[in-house]
Fold:
Amino acid sequence: MESHAIGAEPGRNQRLLLYGVAAAVLVLAPHLMPAGYWLRIYTMTGLYVMLALGLNVVAGFAGLMDLGYAAFFGIGGYLFAILSSAQFDIHLPFPFALPLAAFATMAVGFALGSTSVRLKSDHLAIVTLAFAQVFRLLLVNLDRPINITGGVDGIYNLDPIRLLGFKLVSPVSYAYLIWICAALVIVGCFRLKRSRYGRGWEAIREDELAAEVVGVNTAVMKLKAFSAGAFIAGATGALFASFQGSVSPNNFDFPQLVTVYCMVILGGLGNVAGVVAGAILLSILPEFLREYGAFRMMSYGLILVVLMALRPQGIMGSLGFLFRAEKRPDNDEAGPLRTSTELCYRKKESGSGKRGETRGPGNQVVLEVNEVTQNFGGIVAVDHLSFHVREREILSIIGPNGAGKTTLFNLIAGIYPPPFGTIFYDGKRISGLKPHRIVRAGIARTFQSLKLFNAMTVLDNIKVALFCRTKADPLSIMLHLPLFKREENETQQKAEEALTLIGTGLTGCRFALEAASLAHADRRRIEIARALATGARLLLLDEPSAGMNPQEAEEITQFIRQLRDAYGYTIVVIEHKLDVVKSISDRVIVLDCGRKIAEGSYDEVAEDPRVVEVYLGRKRH
Amino acid sequence: MDVYLEQLPQQLVNGLTLGGLYALIAVGYAMVYGVLTMLNFAHGEIYMIGGFAGWWTLNLLTRNNEPLINTAVLIVFMIVIAMMVTACLGTVVERLAYRPLRKSPRINLLLSALGVSMFLQNAVPASQGAKPRFFFSSVLIPESIRLFHVGSMVISFMRIVVVATAFLLMALLVVMIKKTRMGKAMRATAQDREAADLMGIDTDRIIVFVFLIGSALGGAAGTLAGLLFTQVDYYFGLQAGLKGFTAAVLGGIGNVFGAMLGGIILGLLESLAVNFFPATYKDVAAFVVLILVVIFRPWGLMGKRVPEKV
Structure:
């Protein structure tokens, strides 16, 4: 989010200039440094930049609390040391040992992650913390009976790097090697952040459930973040081991973890440029405190506490206003900020719906719910419920509070896998699938209690919904391959389309607003736009007019009708406002205590004595 | 096997002592988790500072290895002063580092706790020097009653003091939680902070109180550990904190009674495992158990599984 601030889309020339300056610094810096001490710090700074960026992928992008990160750094270092030293006489050449160490570390990260990323954040913290402890204890103790880790002393006398027959031993050549790697990691992180991966992770960090429900495969994405972090940590560990010429348990202990967290927090979780700045700052500044180890760690602790209390977004966070002329959202050509019912038909040609279809409901059944049941510890929320929805139908579900309406949506959307009963969509069984699969299949929902990704921009909120329709892999993202570029353009276009659809008030400069800054009604509209952008054909709208004033409710009602009439969506809506229900529904289902007590047109249902009883109470005789 | 059977009673006594200490620490984690759903990583350091506070008291009240007052009173003094110091420290930490983050994401709270832990852990060597402090139990306990022989067992008097104090403190805690008005308010806050607020409970005060009690118990554990192991140093909070934390998770984190039980189970397991494991691997085993419990039974051995409602 924040890093967009620094020239969200710099022009081509600007970017070339930036790359040029960076390259010049990389080439010149090692020669300008006074040899010895400062050159060493310069090189260590490069290592810390990588290390911090790796942690930033896990904790910053995806919001996972990884307290075992220093252990991954250590695994990479120790593997490299074992592979290229006299410890087991393996002496693998550097170009093989480095990737081997990095990938092996990633494999360990994957293994640990696959058991624990599904856990709640605290539990993940516990598992990773315990893992780091086990790792440290093993390092210290695995020198007997067979000497694997070298115990407290570690492993030393690592092989010098040999590349193409040259021995790479001078401090300057190490500075080059490590900073080139760091530059690659920096560019990779920037590119990842501005891709479907970056948006998916940010969505998970903001609201995991909402991310899953708009089509992000949260389990896999979290595991990918965890493994990517382990990969970077492992590679950095290997480079560090080679640079230092030795490894020992102290290099990878708890204070090291706190140091790296400090760098990431100082820069701002998820803010790539900030994290780089934080790593550089905290690599150089404490050198002046070097003599006082305890004071240095004390100051790191203090930095964490103070930053969390006063500036959790980091030093670089929201500095964006310095670089970007801020647009006043309430004072521009788009007029007052509200949805208009005159839908934007101009962009229709490329639209997500086919216009000119028959207006009313068709005959084909698209959603079939059979005998679905859900109970919460003895309370039956949904009780053997069966119904179907036909294509292009607007079906309203009404009923008193606690009737099981929202639970029913959760069952259809896969948030609770139904313990009993089946659900079919388009002839395919969807009950038991994860929510993101159900979105891919074509059902999207909104929440009664809004679940937007609050810290993300309006446009990015919508773009997350296109995650499940795109498939660029990390490689094509980091190399900006054609697949990535094509998908990014499509994503941009479709997201803008979806936003235009919900009215002209949310277009243009408002795309860049933070979702949290919008008014309630607009947030509801964005949730609907997000559901539309998933490419779903069946929408589950949970009280779309809740919290809206009568005029806004009227507008949203019109809008829902338009979605069906003009774009052919099938819509199931939970609604409490009976006038809204009356005006839009083709059919109404009344729920009470998880059971269907009436079904039919609004007028039929309204006459039904059981419905009257549920709403008004039993008539006295 | 015979050797093992012979040692069993001794190991049980050792395990119970260790377990009592772990339980005292674990309770602090569990109480804080109960009201704030937060892992208070700094609790291990509170325990460490409790150990130092006990040593300062001991140091103040002895001259040339001779106690200035009755040794029984001295031991009580050490524990009480350690509890007072850590209780103050705990509330200060809560006020400065955690309260400003009441509405922040959980990860921020965790990181702040990590920062507090790092700060406290290094504040001690920075201000006091890094050398360990010794508790000369020879000063405190007359030769005649220092060791008891029960059958083949050898039980030191100090061990009895530690076990008795640990269990007494826990009994007091149970009474406080079950019987007093404050305990009821605490339980309400742990179940639903918002609802407790609406019912007129000043939950901020309850949270302060929880930190006060939890830290005091941690501090007592620190001094007891000092008495038992005859020394404290600035990094002994990290390991003990992790153990207490493991115990709290074993018992179902957030559950005070579970934490007590978890602590005792962990202590017993560690003592009994000495016969099967090389001593260096008993910590590895403890953390592996922790990982397995969190992965397969995240609600703990005692905790109840609560279906998550969206």
Remarks:
- The mean pLDDT of chain B is 88.
